[in-house]
Every structure is written in structure tokens, then in C-alpha cells.
Amino acid sequence: MTKSTSLTLAVAVATLTGLSAHAQSFIAYDNTTNFEGTKTSLGGTEVGDEINLTVPGGSTITQFQFEYFFNGTAGAAGGIVRMYAKDFTGNLQPGGNLKPGTVLFESQPFSLDNGFNTATIPDISVTVPANQKIIFTVAFTGVDGTENPGLLMYNGVGTDPDLPGQSGDFYWARNGLDWVQLDSNDPSIIDNLSARVIATPEPTTVALAVAGAAMLGMAARRRKS
Q1: CA–CA gap between residue 213 and residue 10 (Å, rounded)
Q2: Is 51 buried (19+), middle (13-18) or exposed (0-12) by CB count in 10 A?
Q3: Which of 50, 97, 168, 182 could lock onto 93 through a cystine, CB 3.0 to 4.6 A?
Q4: pLDDT digits (tens, 9 = 90+) for 152-205
Q5: Crossing angle between the packed helical segments 3-22 and 203-224, to the nearest 10 degrees
Q6: Residues 47, 143 contacting (CB under 8 angstroms)
Q7: How many CB atoms lie within 10 A of CB 19?
Q8: CA 87, CA 60: separation in Å to the nearest integer?
């Protein structure tokens, strides 16, 4: 085995080791800074946001965190977290924009606490295909006429819906059996909801990165020859 070949394999192995360590977990989306002092205000409506994860290949969500406000009695109302693929092709949004479709995840019901709260759902496994956006929602339940729970709005990420780690300046709400995109119509407010997503890349994503590193090493060896 030549020295240059050994170096090529060493690069690939080192890359695999680094990527394997990185693959254990990473922050795929983080909109938890720059609170805008407002929230959604749709009562018991299911409401959420569309997010684009930072990994270009497929990934598996392992933890999800969001923030909400509730002005009622603790334990009197609840919620359910869902994650949807953006793949519904029925009654499209204007411009042909897809809507929430396939349910990728649904949490167990949980009780709402009074005031400002951070909720974390750990130890989950939600597969997100490559180049697929997801919509997370919270369906508030058991809300009476005097209570108005809502998800907090933050301006901590970019607003290009097609760039990794960003979210468009709008949010989603269920309207009966349909979905609608909403915004506050206030130019000073970015309509992105608080969320933090921890994920691991799919094995194929890691394998492709390692293969790319090995190819670069082989190219370098050929140039030296």
C-alpha cells in the first residue's frame, strides 16, 4: 500500500469518525431568540409554523421544543403537538403552494400551564425525507371562551422559506378540514413561531459525505502522481 493511498484512507476514516460523532445530534432549527412580545391568538385552533431544517439530506428529529402562553387555570386545557409533511396537493394555496398533509408525528395530550412556558418533547424519532419541509402545530383542546392560548413569535431566523434553517414570514392555522396561511399584517412583526429542533442525519447523508471526502483524497493522490 502506497503512502498516498494510506493518506486517502486516513482522510476518509477521519471524516467518518468526525461525522459519526456529529451524527449523534445537532441543532437542525433554532428560533428561540428575539422574542417579539406577541403570540398567536386563535383560541382552540390548531396552529403552527413551516420550517426548513439545516441538513440538506434526510434527517431524524429526536427532540422538539416550543414556547406557548396560556391565561387559564393550569390543567384545565391541553394540547397535542403534530408534525406534518408539506405534501398535500388538493386545494392548494394561491400560487400553487402545498399545504400540511401526511402526519409524521403526533404527541400524547399534555396539560397547559398558566403563563409563559417552554415545552420539550424528548426521545422521539421522526423521519424527515431529504429536501422536505415540515409543519409543526399545536392543537389546543378544552379551551373556554375566556382563555386564549397561543404560540410565541420570535425573530431569530431568516425568512426565506427555501433556505436551510429558515422559515417564511407566515404561519399555518387549521380551518375546518382545510389549512390557511396567516400573518399579522404588521410589517414590524415577523410571523415565525418559537421552535428548536434537535436531529440526526440519515445514514445515507453521512455515507455520501464520507464518499465525497474519499473522492477528494483520490483526486489529490492522482495530482501528486
Answers
A1: 10
A2: buried
A3: 97
A4: 999 999 999 989 999 999 999 998 888 999 998 899 999 999 999 999 998 654
A5: 160
A6: no
A7: 16
A8: 18
